[in-house]
């Protein structure tokens, strides 16, 4: 049996998510963390940056691969309340404020609004992974030129 035949839908989601996340981190290179504003977070296990979803994948799986819902976010903020816990603010609240500053309230309201559920097939997920690997390569190539 071929290895590909053994892959589950979850495996395909992981591959697509990995490619998407890499693209978002590359796309937002040089931008600050939308939650805390840092440009230079401390180096911790797994690197400094994550792909942080404004509306979390668990709560809004239909926005998992929506580029307007994901931005490069420092690991400290993406992992929880981080440095904002003592200030009575939440990472999500600051993320929201930043997105409003950068892109306007209509985008944030759209992200927070209802969305139709997505039902990705294995083929859809393969295509998503390929699309974002290609977009990441193109961005890196453009930056190197």
Protein described:
Helix content is 49%, strand content 7%. It has 145 residues and is mainly alpha-helical. It has one domain (16-138). A two-stranded antiparallel ribbon has the order 1-2. The radius of gyration is 16 Å and the shape is globular. The termini are far apart.
Flag low-confidence runs.
Answer: none
The portion of residues assigned to helices is: 40-55%
Strand order of the largest sheet: 1-2
Distance between the termini: 43 Å
Structural domain count: 1
Largest sheet: 2 strands, antiparallel
- The global form is globular
Count of distinct strands: 2
What is the radius of gyration? 16 Å
The helix/strand order is HHEEHHHH
Number of helices: 6
> In percent terms, what proportion of residues is strand?
5-15%
Main structural class: mainly alpha
List the helices and strands and how they pair.
Elements: H1 3-6, H2 9-27, E1 49-53, E2 70-74, H3 75-78, H4 91-103, H5 105-112, H6 122-144
InterPro entries: Phage_lambda_NinG
Organism: Klebsiella pneumoniae
Protein name: Bacteriophage Lambda NinG protein
Which key phrases capture this entry?
Bacteriophage Lambda NinG protein, 6 helices, Phage_lambda_NinG, 7% strand, mainly alpha, two-stranded antiparallel ribbon, 145 residues
